[in-house]
Design goal:
Helices cover 59% and strands 1% of the residues. It is an all-alpha fold and 347 residues long. It has two domains: 9-281, no CATH class; 296-347.
Length: 347
C-alpha cells in the first residue's frame, strides 16, 4: 500500500541491531535436526494459548485499559505471565498501546498501516525510537517497583522458561514448544496492529480505520473484534455479541467467578446500539484515511509534475544548445563556401 504518512528520520529500521530478533524466526528450523514428539506440539499449542491470553487479557485489557480490577499479587502474576511472551515488559507494552489509541491512524500513531504494512506489523519495534517505555503514559502502574523490575528485566522470565523446557523436555520441546510458539504468538499479536486496520468489517463509527475480523479473533482469543474495541476501549470483552467468540473474555469471567478479579467492565446496552454505521452515521475513520491517501497521492503527483518540468526544461535547453551549434556551424560553412566561390570567380 502507498504511505499516506511519512516516517521520520528517527523511525528508520535498524536491521543490524535486530539480528537476534530476526534470528529467533529461524531457530524453530533446528527441529529438523532433532527428534520431535507429539508432546512437543502439544506444548507448543498450550504455550501459545497461555501466552496469548497473558498478552490479550493482561497486557492489553488490564494494564493498557484497566477493564477490570485485581489484587497486587495477581497483578504481578499477570505481568509475569505477559513477559513469558517475549514482547517486553508490561509498562513498555501498555504505555505504547495507550499512545496508539490516543493517536490511532494519525501521523503520531506509532504503528499505523498508513505508514506501511510492514511498519505497522513489526517495523515499528525495530527502530530505536520506541525502545524506552513511555512511563508518562503509564504512571498508574509505574509506581509499583515489582512492575518496574519486570519491565527492566523482561527477558529473565522467558529465559528461565526456555531453560526449564529444555531441561525437562529436550531439544524438540525447546525448538517447537518454546521458540515456535513464541514466533507464532508474536505475529498473531502483530496482525492486530496491521491487518485489523486493513481487512474486515466496520460496525461502529470511530476516528480510525479499525475493523472486525472473525478469523483474527479466533487466532488471538478475541482481539480480532478490533472495531468494537476502538469504539469502546475500556471494555473487558471485545466480542460484544454472543456470536463474537472472545476466549480471553471468557477466561477473565472465569477468574471473576473465583474472586481473582472483579469489577469487570462491559459496554452498556445503549452504547452497543449507538453510532452504528448501518444507521447512517458517517464513517469518519475511513473518510480520514481516504483523505490522507488522496493528499499523499496529490503530493506525489505534484512531485512527479515538478520532476517532469525539470526534465522537460533540461531536454529543451539541450536541444536548443544543439540547434544553436548547428546553426553556427552551418553559417560558418556557408561563409567559407561563399569566400571560396568569390575567390574562384576573381581568379
Amino acid at each position: 500500500m502507498s504511505h499516506a504518512f511519512a516516517r521520520t528520520e528517527d523511525e528508520r529500521i535498524s536491521w543490524t541491531r535486530n539480528l537476534p530478533f530476526l534470528a529467533m524466526h529461524l531457530v524453530p528450523l533446528a527441529a529438523f535436526f532433532t527428534e520431535v514428539t507429539p508432546f512437543d506440539w502439544v506444548l507448543c499449542f498450550a504455550l501459545y494459548g497461555a501466552r496469548m491470553f497473558f498478552i490479550t487479557g493482561a497486557y492489553h485489557r488490564y494494564f493498557s485499559h484497566r477493564s477490570y480490577k485485581t489484587s497486587r499479587p495477581m497483578q504481578f502474576l499477570l505481568a509475569l505471565g505477559g513477559t513469558l511472551a517475549v514482547q517486553k515488559g508490561p509498562l513498555w507494552w501498555a504505555g505504547h498501546h495507550r499512545h496508539h489509541h490516543k493517536h490511532s491512524d494519525q501521523q503520531e500513531d506509532i504503528h499505523s498501516p498508513m505508514k506501511g504494512l510492514f511498519w505497522s506489523h513489526m517495523g515499528w519495534i525495530m527502530c530505536k525510537k520506541h525502545d524506552p517505555a513511555p512511563e508518562h503514559l503509564i504512571k498508574d502502574f509505574a509506581k509499583f517497583p515489582e512492575l518496574r523490575w519486570l519491565d527492566k528485566y523482561h527477558l529473565v522470565p522467558p529465559t528461565l522458561l526456555a531453560v526449564a523446557i529444555y531441561s525437562f523436555g529436550g531439544a524438540g520441546a525447546l525448538f517447537i514448544g518454546f521458540f515456535l510458539s513464541t514466533v507464532i504468538t508474536w505475529h498473531c499479536t502483530y496482525f492486530i496492529n496491521s491487518l485489523t486496520h486493513l481487512i474486515g468489517r466496520r460496525r461502529y463509527v470511530t476516528t480510525d480505520t479499525s475493523r472486525n475480523s472473525f478469523i483474527l479473533a479466533l487466532l488471538t482469543l478475541g482481539e480480532g473484534w478490533h472495531n468494537n474495541h476502538h469504539y469502546y476501549q475500556s471494555s473487558a470483552n471485545q466480542g460484544f455479541f454472543w456470536w463474537e467468540i472472545d476466549i480471553s473474555y471468557y477466561v477473565i469471567k472465569l477468574l471473576s467467578f473465583v474472586g481473582l478479579v472483579w469489577d469487570v467492565r462491559v459496554p452498556p446496552q445503549h452504547v452497543l446500539q449507538s453510532h452504528r454505521l448501518k444507521d447512517g452515521h458517517a464513517d469518519i475513520g475511513m473518510f480520514q484515511a481516504n483523505w490522507a491517501k488522496a493528499v499523499s497521492a496529490l503530493d506525489n503527483a505534484k512531485a512527479q509534475l515538478e520532476s517532469a518540468k525539470a526534465q522537460a526544461g533540461s531536454y529543451y535547453d539541450e536541444r536548443r544548445a544543439a540547434l544553436d551549434t548547428m546553426v553556427k556551424d552551418t553559417s560558418r560553412a556557408a561563409e567559407e563556401i561563399a569566400r571560396m566561390t568569390r575567390k574562384a570567380v576573381a581568379d
